[in-house]
Predict the 3D structure of the following.
Amino acid sequence: MTNNAAMTPDISEVHTLIIGAGFGGLLTAIKLKEAGIDDFVILDKDEGVGGTWWANSYPGCACDVQSHLYSYSFEPNPDWSHMFGRQSEIRDYMRHCVAKYGLEQHIRLRCEVRRARYRDSDGRWQVEAKDGTRYRSRFLVAATGGLSRPAHPDIPGLEEFKGEIFHSAAWNHDYDLKGKRVAAIGTGASAIQFVPAIAADVDQLFVYQRTPPWILPRPDRAITGFEKKMFRRFPITQKIYRTILYWRLESRALVFTVFPGLSRMIEWLGRRHIRKSIPDPHLRMQVVPDYPAGCKRILLSDDYYPALTRDNVYLVTRRIREITADGVVTTDGAKHEVDAIILGTGFQATKPLPEGMIIGRQGLDITQRWQEGLEAYKGISVSGFPNLFVLAGPNTGLGHNSVIFMLEAEVHYVMDCIKTMQENGVDALEIRRDVEAEYNRRLQRRLARTIWASGCRSWYLDENGKNTTLWPGFTVEYWSRTRKFDIRNYVSLTAGNQATPGDAAEAA
């Protein structure tokens, strides 16, 4: 893998340029190689491969989907140490994939994309990286992921704090938390992992909770040596186990999308988990959510609630009024002096790409295209942006199963598109605006009947209350919808084509 320290005025010509070396980017690269396409490059802003599993290295970081399912179907790992993979183990798995499939020479690290612009004159994407390197490609794959841009809270005085402050997605491992007074802002998926991991080391830990999450027990355990040996010797057993896991998780979609009333069963399990984990009745009341289970992301943890019962851990439920140079002040006027602040405030899921990064036909910025909410055809194709494929795009996220399954379906669709274009002699394709619009109208009608539309605010919804992140059904349905690329839903373009973005024209 190359760090691209040197700058060059030359423009490198490639068939496909991939932004992001996470699961989606690596998967695309592997499938390109399988198709005999070796002329591609992967650009990534970080110092190592892994995407979110490189960036998120906070103490306790782990996956909330079982290891044997949170991996490529074609590249099983019989040596997972636990039912739920740890961050370092998942990162190492991805490194293994890079080595096995010969991707090193294609990856450029510390090479953040400044701008990717579609040139109407030659029908190519011109990509500029912040280190000065430039590329021209026929296809552009945005594999940045939906949870790649950390969200920083808008709290008065945040910039005035004189102590150490960092986001959980940019953990400062050089700062020793031992013996420190620490404020953890947020109680989402990251916080419920790092709070228990640091609680024993810090002097005081103030956990600022705006809204309590529904938390269920985490069925984690070490995978035995016998199981690993069996998986290695008889690979079919691991495949069967993966299939069982898939359908077990797939059944949970019934609660979210078909029978929202079943969420009461989850709430009962959540309350029982609280009763078993927290002796103090007052603390119990503070962590019981007041919204239906599933409306926000359901979390898994066995050690978060016990961490809150420690003598040096304090749950703060009052809203933060301001941050001063040496502490955090809540709306009741109480101030907690701290040495460090950790922001467990999640990601900009409804704004995954920054302004000016991807520019389509006739200078259309993708953030302008998405001004009224993210949308794409099958979460992959965006009108006004020919030969652009978005992975883990709008409404392809999940609340019940493995996102790796969705990525494999998406990349299959992408590869079928490229194959179809080659067979038909088509240089560039753009999704028809009418097809894209109708697809998303139907999607939103379905989402309106799900548990996610039951009234609570969550990162699933944008500022207008539109769910632009989640798939409203079973993943097997999405898999079925992406089996075959239909060129009739797209507009065929040639260099110099000046049709306005979104024209409803017939495809070639």
Remarks:
- The domain at 11-148+349-493 is CATH 3.50.50.60 (FAD/NAD(P)-binding domain).
- The radius of gyration is 23 Å.
